[in-house]
């Protein structure tokens, strides 16, 4: 797929700007705080309807404006689509594809696919488990937009169930038996939790099972085959196979086992919102023992695996967004990345200095200077 045009109005520090992409690689160059990451964020929103930097639309809208807009012209293998997101300070969004209003987020997701790779991604290895869950969820949403809907429903159930558990806690702590009505309503929530949690967990298991060998292969290539990467799903509820009935059963058993803990804490402690993903290099957890270089190699391998997996599932190469990462990779790893993406993936790259990276990246790239939310086409000779 190819992002042909991007139009931003009152988005972050962009007043009104349109850009036409004219090469497989576009380099956005500019000083700090000029709007490079903001532009990638707009593309991320088109792909996932989420930003990894904020969950509040009021931060996305230009300061002082009531609403903003992101518009894109996307060429896919067999179709062209105009995508539009209207953002409001209040948080209400309007989504349109080819001028047709999308009733649900689900109808918009899946049009544009993108893999983002930013310097923050080392958190994927070092950060708390929710970084890894979020990463996995973003990937799964792109593979199957319905997943976003399932996950949102699951999260809603956890929230409701937590509220109920909190109100039960007091009763339970004073030693009173739970009233019949409350017990029955907890059981109802249990069933919904199990139902939707099972759908989340099975999708995560299947997704990771497909990703793991690709990540291992890429990792082997980048590290010169000296190390072996193992990516494992470590679900909170453990089961064997892929039979939903088996997952249900395991889930219910675990809930029964943890009932007093849940009542004591007033919170749901069983379910995929407590899942973890393990990254192990040669039997050593990357999180605690990996050197910075090893951790970078790992993240790079994961990102390349994501690209290949999305390409296989969608049938078209997704976009690649590289935010500030090239300068952090040594020339060897840059070369690996370059070879891996060839010219197949449209790539948007941000950097503060063009000379930070390999000549080969620049040779065929379109270069856009970013200055205070304005874009200007440049030639390499003008900048060096
Ligand atoms: N809602 C908004 N309205 C106006 N300006 C905003 C808004 N949100 C962010 N900004 C501005 O955008 C700028 C940050 O842009 P961005 O994160 O894209 O920088 P960058 O070019 O990627 O810089 P760096 O090289 O440091 O990563 C800041 O100056 C910030 O004040
Ligand atoms: Mg930035």
Report on this model:
The protein folds into 2 domains: 182 residues, Rossmann fold (3-Layer(aba) Sandwich); 193 residues, Glutathione S-transferase Yfyf (Class Pi), Chain A, domain 2 (Up-down Bundle), CATH 1.20.1050. The strands form 3 sheets. The protein has a 6-stranded antiparallel beta sheet with strand order 2-1-4-5-6-7. The protein is α/β, with parallel strands linked by helices. It contains 14 helices and 15 strands. The site of magnesium ion has 5 residues, from helix 1.
Topology, pairings included?
Elements: E1 2-11, E2 14-20, E3 25-29, H1 36-48, H2 57-60, E4 67-75, E5 80-88, E6 94-97, E7 100-101, H3 105-108, E8 114-118, H4 123-126, H5 129-143, H6 146-173, H7 180-222, E9 229-234, H8 244-257, H9 259-265, E10 276-281, E11 284-285, H10 286-289, H11 292-314, E12 319-323, H12 331-341, E13 347-351, H13 359-363, E14 366-371, E15 374-378, H14 380-383
Parallel strand pairs: 3-13, 3-14, 8-12, 12-13
Antiparallel strand pairs: 1-2, 1-4, 4-5, 5-6, 6-7, 9-10, 10-11, 14-15
Helix pairs in contact: 5-6, 5-7, 6-7, 6-9, 7-8, 7-11
Bound molecules: adenosine-5'-triphosphate (ATP) and magnesium ion (MG).
Adenosine-5'-triphosphate binds next to helix 1.
């Amino acid at each position: 797929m190819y992002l042909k045009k991007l139009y931003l109005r009152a988005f972050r520090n962009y007043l009104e700007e349109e850009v036409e992409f004219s090469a497989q690689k576009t380099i956005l160059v500019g000083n700090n705080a000029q709007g490079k990451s903001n532009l990638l964020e707009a593309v991320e929103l088109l792909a996932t309807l989420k930003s990894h930097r904020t969950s509040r639309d009021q931060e996305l809208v230009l300061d002082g404006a009531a609403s903003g807009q992101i518009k894109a012209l996307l060429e896919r293998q067999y179709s062209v689509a105009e995508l539009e997101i209207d953002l409001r300070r209040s948080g209400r969004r309007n989504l349109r594809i080819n001028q047709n209003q999308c009733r649900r987020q689900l109808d918009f997701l899946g049009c544009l696919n993108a893999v983002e790779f930013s310097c923050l991604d080392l958190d994927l290895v070092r950060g708390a488990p929710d970084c890894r869950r979020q990463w996995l969820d973003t990937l799964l949403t792109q593979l199957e937009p319905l997943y976003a809907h399932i996950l949102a429903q699951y999260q809603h159930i956890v929230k409701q169930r937590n509220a109920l558990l909190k109100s039960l806690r007091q009763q339970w702590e004073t030693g009173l038996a739970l009233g019949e009505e409350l017990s029955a309503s907890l059981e109802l929530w249990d069933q919904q939790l199990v139902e939707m949690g099972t759908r989340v967990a099975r999708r995560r298991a299947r997704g990771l099972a497909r990703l793991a060998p690709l990540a291992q292969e890429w990792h082997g290539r980048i590290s010169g085959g000296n190390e072996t990467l193992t990516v494992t799903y470590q679900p909170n509820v453990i089961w064997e196979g892929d039979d939903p009935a088996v997952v249900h059963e395991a889930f219910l058993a675990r809930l029964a086992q943890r009932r007093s803990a849940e009542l004591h804490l007033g919170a749901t402690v069983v379910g995929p919102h407590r899942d973890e993903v393990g990254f192990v290099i040669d039997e050593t957890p990357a999180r605690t023992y990996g050197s910075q270089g090893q951790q970078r190699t790992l993240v790079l391998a994961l990102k390349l695996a994501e690209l290949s997996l999305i390409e296989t599932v969608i049938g078209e190469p997704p976009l690649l967004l590289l935010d500030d990462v090239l300068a952090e990779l040594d020339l060897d790893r840059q070369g690996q990345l370059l070879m891996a993406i060839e010219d197949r993936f449209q790539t948007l790259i941000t950097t503060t200095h063009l000379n930070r990276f390999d000549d080969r990246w620049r040779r065929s790239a379109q270069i856009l200077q970013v200055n205070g939310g304005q874009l200007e086409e440049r030639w390499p000779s003008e900048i060096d």
